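## retry 2 of 3
previous attempt timed out at serialization; input unchanged, resubmitting
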Amino acid sequence: MPAAVTIDLGVPADDEWGGTGAAWRPSRGLLAAVLAVLLVFTLAGSAPLSASGWRAGQLPIAAGDDFALVGDLLVVAEESTVTAYRVPRLDPVWTVSVPASEGHSLTRAGDLLVIGGLNGVGRQLESTAVTVATGAVRWRHQGRIIPLPGSDVLLAVSDVPSVSASGRRLTGAIDGIDAFGMRRWSVRLPSSAVAVPLPGGQFLLVHDDGATEVRDAGDASVRATGEFPAAAYAPDNPRLVGSTVVLRHPGDNTSRISGYDVRTLAHRWSRTVGGLQSVDECGELVCLGTTIGVRALDPRDGSSAWVSPSWRRALSWGDVTVAYGRPTGVDARLALVEPMTGGPLLDLSAWQQVTSVTDDVVLAHPDAARGDTLVATVASDRRSVRVLGAIPAASGGCRAGGGVLACRQGGGILGVWALD
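## retry succeeded, writing output
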């Protein structure tokens, strides 16, 4: 790998909110987290970063093929076959045949990889579960699979068969299946519904009439019931933040946000929010993006934690919280922020808008003058960006994991670069 270059962004101690902000020390996981952004600066005075000599390897990949990094495996799904390669050397590990489809989804569920077959509008019609280690087929099931944290039971569901609702609402029945594909239970849906995974092997089931249940994944027993107001229910509405289920729903000529206890579904609070544009989890808070700024609420009681007119949206990327500023022309201000106060930790005003997020790397915009794309991480001092190296300018659709970066390139090539 080329030598790393650190770029000091020169963030002053006193930020625009006044004062120096609350003392804060990032965790080890946060120090490793990264941002994916479009780079707009040049490395004046630094050594050239060559795109050659860094690459670990490459594979052919068609435009419709999907890929994922699963542990130390790079998994590539073609029309009717799925192949796993060991990274970074890209040694073939296993290949499995799957029913031909127009696209695939790849989802990790414990020691299984669930391969979903998609139709032309993205509706998942069937699922094949294989062991990650060997690729041996464990079971096949119709419909889509939803993993549940803290449970060995998976939800087998069928999406509403429409372009607008595909992947958003469920129909028919929900089956609970174990790691060997055996059905433990089945719940019939009288109409469409939304299932939201909860911690501890439970899930939230919201029917289209507002009837809501918390069910146990082990036997589908009902642990709590409630009634939600009419809303555009979807996999991200409602959402769980801490111990509160947060729902966005219409109010009197405006939007409302309501919070419900996840254990009992008892109503905790409601707030009216004008000009609401987005609802996101930001650390331990709920961040509401509005036409006049961001308002962060404590999900426990709906109280205001902070308000900033500087941002239009704030949300979590893993352990990191980032905020988008109001666009000026084609650019938008971006910063890493302290979620409990909204104060900036790392000013990224010199960077353009985010393109994609991974667990390990930053994807930078191609530099026309250099003819390549830079890859970087946020340095441990939280006040600089550490450039790792360069990849070809045509790279895109990047993902990271297992110590490598994989990106699509022109000519049907999937390039792989070792990050360690």
